[in-house]
Amino acid sequence: MKYTNKSINSYIGDLEVEFYPWTGKNERDYLSLVEKCNKEDKEATDKDVLETLIFPVVIKPDIKTLNKLSSEQQKLLLIKIREVSISDEITDDVICPECEKEQVIKEKIKDCISYKPKSFKDVVVQDIQITWNTSPHFNNTKKDEVINSIYNEFLCYVQDVKIGEESYNEPSFKDKKEFFDTLPTKIFDEIFNKYTEMKDELEIRTPFKCKNCEHEDTIIYEHIPNFLWI
Length: 230
Ligand SMILES: [Zn+2]
Known about the structure:
By secondary structure, the protein is α+β, with helices and mostly antiparallel strands. The protein has 8 helices and 12 strands.
């Protein structure tokens, strides 16, 4: 005996996606994962989230294509599934920076998010030139903690490296890691900052107007507050 859910069609940029809303089982699987992570005093990784909340409900595209989504695109997909499965609103407790009065804000998710697609061009720093792969495969790069995931995602985007007159076309992940691990911080940071400006970006922000003193502000979130079931 099975309940037949209706699937939803949507878009991530120009990629068509089709998925089912989460079921009670998806919810329990995710909560078990969070409980396990809490016990081990760590956070759920992007890979954990992909495997418990995205893979089981997405019909289209296939897993291979899902592994090519950037972290920001995965977040966007997660937001779309959450909107239809749980609620299209977010609520947050905010303390006014002016009068310090606490209040609750309630916003539609679609009014809080904006997505800027990536726009890569070659980067040259001193005698190093980097060209980018705009559609790399990310499997296995998202299993680490956040800082390493961000670095690994960067490494996946690197396609060719030219050092002086020497060209390295499509070096392996291991070779790229060795190269960037051995670069002086100053040069690495300059390359990484340029990459950060060109990569895609999901921004979550909401206007805030205090009900007490009318102070106006914009709240920028790292993550959507009270996003899933917890
Ligand atoms: Zn106020």
